[in-house]
Amino acid sequence: MKFTDSEVEVQMNPIASERVRIGLSQEGLASKLDLKSRATIAAYESGGEIPSSKLIAMTRLFHCSADYLLGLTENRTVA
Questions:
Q1: How far apart are CA 72 and CA 36, in angstroms?
Q2: Largest Cα–Cα distance of the chain, in whole Å?
Q3: Is the dihedral of CA 26, 60, 62, 79 positive or negative?
Q4: At the N or C end, where does the chain have fewer CB atoms within 10 A?
Q5: What distance in Å separates the CA atoms of residue 53 and residue 26, rounded to the nearest whole number?
Q6: Bridge partners of residue 8, in order along the sequence
Q7: Could you read off the pLDDT of 16-72 as tens digits, one per residue?
Q8: 38-45 and 14-21 helices cross at what angle (nearest 10)?
Q9: Region label for 12, one of left (φ > 0), alpha (ψ between -120 and 50) or beta (otherwise)
Q10: Which residues, other chains included, contact 79 with Cβ-Cβ below 8 Å and sequence gap of 6+?
Q11: How far apart are CA 58 and CA 21, in angstroms?
């Protein structure tokens, strides 16, 4: 997902895009995933390592594939 602010274009990663799509802040997503800090979500959104249990929880919350959240495909769901 891309947002344009005058001449600055921002590319969001899939986790951030899905989080924004369903109206959650980083704090809100951290709470839903039983995490103590929004910094963990920021790390996930910056390409940090995601534990499989949290990845599975996000696929269920966002109704999309793990491959999509990991940036391996642009298709949200498995064909």
A1: 28
A2: 39
A3: positive
A4: C
A5: 18
A6: 5
A7: 999 999 999 999 999 999 999 999 999 999 999 999 999 999 999 999 999 999 999
A8: 130
A9: beta
A10: none
A11: 13
Residue type, 47: G
pLDDT at res. 12 = 81
CA separation for the pair 42, 31 (Å, rounded): 13
Place of tokens 């919350």: 61
Identify the CA nearest to 27 among candidates 43, 9, 39, 10.
Answer: 39
Please state, in angstroms and rounded to a whole number, the distance separating the CA atoms of residues 18 and 24.
9
SS3 of the chain: CEEEECCEEEECCHHHHHHHHCCCCHHHHHHHCCCCCHHHHHHHHCCCCCCHHHHHHHHHHHCCCHHHHCCCCCCCCCC
